[in-house]
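Message: A physicist's question: would you kindly supply an amino acid chain plus fold tokens?
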Amino acid sequence: MGQSVSSEEETKQDYRTVKVSKGQLQRLFDKNCLSLLTPIEVYSLKENLHVRDINNDKQLSIDETVQLLGLPKDCPCNEVVYDFVRVLGWFPFFNSVDPLKGISLPMLIRSVVLSRSKSFFKLFKGDSSYKFEDLVFLVLSILSEPKDLVEKNLDSSCDETGVLELALQGDSNIHWAQCKVIKDFDNTNIKERKVSAYNLAIF
């Protein structure tokens, strides 16, 4: 019982918030994601995509993405997997998902880090309040919406505009799960979301 009380106290840490732009938050998040990849993984990505800069904005095709993920070339689910990786790659700005834009290398890295339990745990410092299952459900629900509706609701201001709060523990230790835009899934009510049976069956 003493251990339970101790665990609860450890999770109730003090955080301070600083104001940042969307662009700044995205760059900090991407830097954190990149730090969770091993040097050989970074090298492999650059070699397979024939790029020198890991921040290269090259758009990946379905075939390139499938090959990098090690999936069979003719699998019927490849298009849904590609779209899943693409939408997850917009994290944390799900109201900025552009149905016409493909996958860039930074988006792929975000998706890889968020999809692996080990790196997900490290990224969110084991904060059990942020659940991978909720994230998957949200992505699948976005994929279930008609593309014209997604485009209509597109928030194109994912750049230097807008002011967001970044949760810091200590001087520079970012606690992502406590950042409002991440905590509330970019102001999305997940209880109102729906997933198509087709997308759910594939996953």
Notes: The longest strand covers residues 163-169. Confidence is low (pLDDT under 50) at residues 1-12.
